[in-house]
User: Fold this.
Amino acid sequence: MLSNLYLNEVDRMLERAREVTREKVRTHVQYARYADDLVVLVDPTRGYAWLEGAVVRRLREELAKLGVEVNEEKSRVADLSKGEYPRKPSRPQPCSVTL
Assistant:
């Protein structure tokens, strides 16, 4: 519960990123956070290849302001279009995507 209050600034930053990169109904940044777990999705379509690096950099800046350290062992950038996943499951699990 405390992490939800503590990370409100991160939510605000990601909401701004989502709105700034919105094109009509298409968003180029989307995120989901539950407590201190966070997944950020970046759509790297033509013209937005720079966005991944910018989002990672801004996220690290915002977390540093809050004094939050990123656990590098648990954190990574994954390219879903190449079949990479943010984390390898400890055992095989079914996977589904909801749009």
Remarks:
- The radius of gyration is 14 Å.
- The longest strand covers residues 29-34.
- The beta strands are 29-34, 37-42.
- The mean pLDDT is 80.
